[in-house]
Amino acid sequence: MDKEFPLARVRETAATGGRGFRGWWARAAELGWTALLAPEELGGGSVSGEGVRDLALLAETLGESVAPGALLATNIVLAGLVAAQADGGDHAAVIRELVGGASIATWAVYEPGRPWEPLEPGLAATPVADGHRLNGVKDRVELAGEADLFLVTADTGEGVAQFLVPADAGGITVRPQWSLDLARPFGEVRFDDVLVRPRALVGAVGSGAVVARQARIAGVLQCAEICGGLDRVFEMTTRWAADRHSFGRPLDSYQALKHRFADMRTWLEACHATTQAAAAAVQEHSPDADLAVSVAKSFVGDRSLRILQDCVQLHGGIGVTWEHDLHLYLRRATVDRALYGTPEDHRRRLADLTLS
Amino acid sequence: MVTENPAAESVESFRLRARAWLAENMRRPVEGESGRKTAEEEDWRRARELQRRLYEGGFAGICFPREYGGLGLSPAHQRAFTEEADGYEMPLLLNIPTFAICAATILDMGGEDQKRERIGAAIRGEEVLCQFLSEPGGGSDLAGLITRADRDGDGWVVNGAKTWSTWAYAADWALCLARTDWDAPKHRGLTMFLMPTKAPGVTMRRVRMVDGSDEFCEEFFDNVVLPASAVVGEVNGGWTVASRQLVHEKTAVGGGSPYVSGRLRHGGLRWEDLPEVARVTGRVDDPAVREEIGEWVAMSHVRDQLIERVSRSIGDGVLPPAATAFMRLFSAEASQAANDAMLRIAGPAAVVGGVDEPGLGRLVGVRQLMRQESSLGGGSTEISRNIISERVLGMPREYAADRDVPFREVRRGRGADERRA
Q1: What is the pLDDT averaged over residues A79-102?
Q2: Is pLDDT of B416 > 90?
């Protein structure tokens, strides 16, 4: 990863708004970055047989290098497509394409002005003779301008449903949105009378199970990505504190600073612990998987920013300069914290899950 | 060290056997019965009786070796038993310090006779163990202690004072650390002894805490005579023993000890307490309160996940033993976060109770008075932070004025000098 995508290249990508990774993505797919959630008969597979955990490790690696790419976007969609295979509907061809890296896909779930409510979409899917017509707007769609396919969560009037829609379908308009993460672009996607055929349906109408699976995978991958970034930043900061001298002694000889490092190191360990526990619970389809993901996302989402901001503080003024790499990590973690459920959303969810 | 019995039965089989045995032999206590921090004679009699019952049923000392009266099984067996025992009346009073700290230390550092006699008796419910470590004149600087043991023929005579000895009044034996060489630097002149708590010359006083509990004791030694066989480890090698003891203590306080049987309450708190406070105050549907509850649910899970990960990593050699300080530090944080959340949710109900009873006052208000207990007991969190930064992260060590200086020449605070040699 360091060779393929050093931080200097992340900055170059930033200049193009996080685009221009497609050539590299095909090689990532060859390395198996898209294969872990898909079954072998559809071109996927994981050596350890634990695809979710392996994918979380990959996301950590990605986080260490804050690289662009479609690891989150494509794998979230793959999780949904693979889970939906069980409900009939055959998306084998698309799965093969995504696994092969020829196509990338992204989940269109958020809607303008609305919070994280994946099971209550406002975008209308109106039944017509030969399928559905989609009308509405999605936003905060990762890689909206790059994706070949959108997985659109919509309301059919008879319950939530998801449709796989090619980005070049008639009636779709994509506009880029400003993104805090220089290497991870987002966009608004407008659907005006977009016709989708019955075979575009992913999973059964009215069943939230596939949506929930996508949300769980999203949460695990975000936490893992944050953990990778935290590892790298913490290492950078401890090295800095050992090298830098003030008043004739190294920064890391001051007890006031040592104690902050001790807190951060403890929280870092806790971030890894809860992320791995969430990955394991999702891997095993545990009945507590939703709980485990919300525990991890609510904890890692907040704690990571405390750690990162303290690392900025310990760097001194250079920590808030454009040329220092810290902000690349801070941007990624802040974006991960906010999307697919904020820590506050996940805390309310935990209360719902435990106060029944 | 936990030594495993290679021919051990599988965890699942052990679990099923434990489930059946517990249902047949142990009692489910009534709600609200446990969790007290003041245990009287009757509770101790009961704890010994329950321990005896576990022993006779073949479920005592699960991770202790068979030759010392245990079962020689793995921490996974112990975890399974603890899960099955949840909800049953268990001799929880014996977990800390008897098994998790004292017996564990004797197992690592004691002589054959000491291991066989003390660990065996504890597993059979016949004896309770405690620690005589801290002193009235010393805080975190344990090695600066001034209780002295002087040679007298083959044996020793002990004089001095100890404090913060948990449950000492109920104990039979104590691991007592004393100074045996005043010309050596502080860590190198200490010796660990096994002292009968009822020996002539030992006077004990209970220390009352702000919440009314009195689990701690203070002891005074006036020419207490001990035989040569009372020494644990080497003469003047007491710091090595104490270091093992402190690791066991941190592990136990952090919640990661394989020698603990039955569910421990972390800092006396359970996450279920928080929703209960919300229900009693009628705020369970308040979104802000639900976020507080969710945050504490997360914290309590993360604490358990951290303990599991760190215990495994230390076992695998991925992290040094000093990493037990992670568990200790995070457990304190989680406990205090819960105290604070409860105080916010309870509002005025935490400080003014009902007409006849304290209501939430006892659960929330008084607990707030003891909030710092979780970052003080078992060594302050400031020391944990030193340990993590120096021994896990390898940062420079703090300056110590007493390093490599004969202890006799080390400056001590007022009061301490009155007792010095």
Answers
A1: 90
A2: no
DSSP A69: S
A356 CB within 8 Å of a chain B CB:
no
How far apart CA A32 and CA B358 sit, in angstroms, is 62
* CA distance, residue A223 to nearest chain B CA (Å): 13
User: Is B386 in CB contact (< 8 Å) with chain A?
Assistant: yes
CA–CA dist B360, B237 (Å, integer): 49
Of A269, A349, A355, the CB nearest to B275: A355
Q: Does residue B52 register a pLDDT over 80?
A: yes
Of all residues in chain A, the one with the smallest CA distance to B382 is A259
Could you write out the DSSP letters of every residue in B14-75?
A: HHHHHHHHHHHH-PPPPTTSS--S---HHHHHHHHHHHHHHHHHT-SSTTS-GGGTS----H
Which ipTM was obtained for this model?
A: 0.95
Q: Looking at the complex, report in whole angstroms how far the Cα of residue B103 sits from the nearest Cα belonging to chain A.
A: 28
Residues of B in Cβ contact (< 8 Å) with A348: 287, 290-291, 294
Q: Where do we find the tokens 């710091």?
A: B239
Compare CB distances from B389 to A262, A272, A354 and report the shortest one's residue.
A262
Topology adopted by domain B6-127: Butyryl-Coa Dehydrogenase, subunit A; domain 1 (1.10.540)
Domain boundaries, chain B: 6-127, 131-243, 265-392
The model's pLDDT over A54-73, given as tens digits with 9 standing for 90+, comes to: 999 999 999 999 988 899 99
How many residues are given for chain B?
Answer: 421
Which pLDDT does position A264 carry in this prediction?
A: 98
Q: Does position B31 have pLDDT exceeding 60, yes or no?
A: no
Pick the CATH number of B265-392 from 1.20.140.10, 3.40.50.360, 1.20.120.450, 3.90.1720.10: 1.20.140.10
d(CA B234, CA B224): 20
CATH class of the domain defined by B131-243: mainly beta
Residue to substitute from B280, B291, B330, interface A, most A β-carbons within 10 A: B291
- A252 to chain B, any CB pair closer than 8 A? The answer is yes
Asked whether residue B139 carries a pLDDT value surpassing 80, the answer given is: no
* Residue B318 DSSP class: S
* B293·A351 Cβ contact <8 A: yes
Q: Which residue of A has its CA nearest to B271?
A: A354
